[in-house]
Design goal:
six-stranded mixed beta sheet; Rossmann fold; 13 strands; alpha/beta; seven-stranded mixed beta sheet; binds adenosine-2'-5'-diphosphate; 8 helices; Dihydrodipicolinate Reductase, domain 2; 327 residues; 2 domains; 24% strand
Length: 327
């Protein structure tokens, strides 16, 4: 398998390399692309040195690339993903550019792997906060999902190196360069741009992508997305209203058995999912599972996952693995 990484010098790009080194995708050759700023940079992969190339319109021509993992921003994906697909490359795109396009499957491998079969050259990786909510919601599907409310607590690594820098520099007393306000000692209810209706684009992504992945186009979903001074791993509170009654202990057992989910819910011992513990892992951690007594059949969940791994790089590599395993 000849694999290309677009955005190879970024935070997600670097994690693509790490995840690919850990897993067995059957890579025979690797091609690394980034902007002109990084052209010529050397990168080590499994003991071999690779040179980063500047991405251009000819990057995919006649190079026999099977799969390209993109994480270089929406503008780059909008322009270059179709050029790659035209050359027969299967693009797995981490940006938001193609997620809601009707010809583009939006995939969390534990939840809707069959969707990849509909691809026309581009498959989208969902938003990081959305990804970690999908397997827990899928586990509740049998009770009938009536309404979903998300509140997110998102790490600065979700903004790439620039976000990490704002937190690191802020801790030294320096002013922010990326966020509109200081992130140290603050929670910023502002991720991505504001839309006309007062929601942010990040909140809209969570609403639209949840409906698409679960195949419930009319599901009532609302979200508030907040950037918090945490270096890595997103936490999301999910409130779910269900159509039918459930037994809370049975739901816990079902979550514990869900592929890709680890139940951490022993409150008597102060055990629940935490960002520091999730960092470096590929699973979604779920805890604080409890009945919402304000409605007839409601449930509250707390989920934590590494937003750069499961929320981006690992999920994309798992999509690629569906093909290497011959799906
Ligand atoms: P570069 O390092 O050369 O700027 P992050 O999200 O961590 O900031 O990473 C963004 C990634 O996307 C980097 O690898 C960056 O490359 C790459 N990138 C940004 N703009 C472009 C572009 N116009 N063409 C190709 N790669 C780009």
């Amino acid at each position: 398998m000849r694999v290309a990484i677009v955005g190879a010098t970024g935070l997600v790009g670097g994690t693509f390399l790490k995840v690919l080194e850990e897993r067995d995708l059957g890579i025979t050759d690797l091609l690394l692309f980034a902007s002109s700023r990084s052209a010529g940079k050397k990168v080590n992969f499994r003991g071999k040195e690779y040179t980063v190339e500047e991405l251009n319109e000819d990057s995919f021509k006649g190079r026999g690339i099977d799969i390209a993992l993109f994480s270089a921003g929406g503008g780059t994906s909008l322009k270059y993903a179709p050029l790659a697909a035209q050359e027969g490359v299967l693009v797995i795109d981490n940006s938001s550019a193609w997620r809601m396009h009707e010809d583009v499957p939006l995939v969390v491998p534990e939840v809707n792997p069959e969707a990849v079969l509909q691809h026309k050259g581009i498959i989208a990786n969902p938003n990081c906060s959305t990804i970690q909510c999908m397997a827990p919601l899928k586990a509740l599907e049998k009770y009938g999902i009536k309404r979903v409310i998300y509140s997110t607590y998102q790490a600065v690594s979700g903004t790439g190196y620039k976000g990490v820098q704002d937190l690191e520099e802020g801790l030294k007393g320096n002013p922010p360069k990326t966020y509109p306000h200081q992130i140290v000692n603050n929670c910023l209810p502002h991720i991505d741009v504001f839309l006309e209706d007062g929601y942010t684009k990040e909140e809209k992504k969570m609403v639209d992508e949840t409906r698409k992945i679960l195949g419930l186009p009319n599901l009532p979903v609302t979200a508030t997305c907040v950037r918090v001074p945490v270096m890595n791993s997103h936490s999301v509170f999910i409130n779910v209203e269900l159509e039918n009654d459930f037994d809370i202990e049975e739901v816990k057992r079902e979550l514990a058995q869900t592929n890709g989910v680890v139940l951490l819910d022993r409150v008597a011992e102060n055990i629940y999912p935490l960002a520091n513990d999730a960092t470096g892992k590929d699973e979604v951690f779920v805890g604080r599972v409890r009945r919402d007594n304000s409605v007839k059949y409601g449930i509250n969940l707390w989920t934590v996952a590494d937003n750069i791994r499961k929320g981006a790089a690992t999920n994309a590599v798992q999509i690629a693995e569906l093909f290497s395993k011959g799906m």
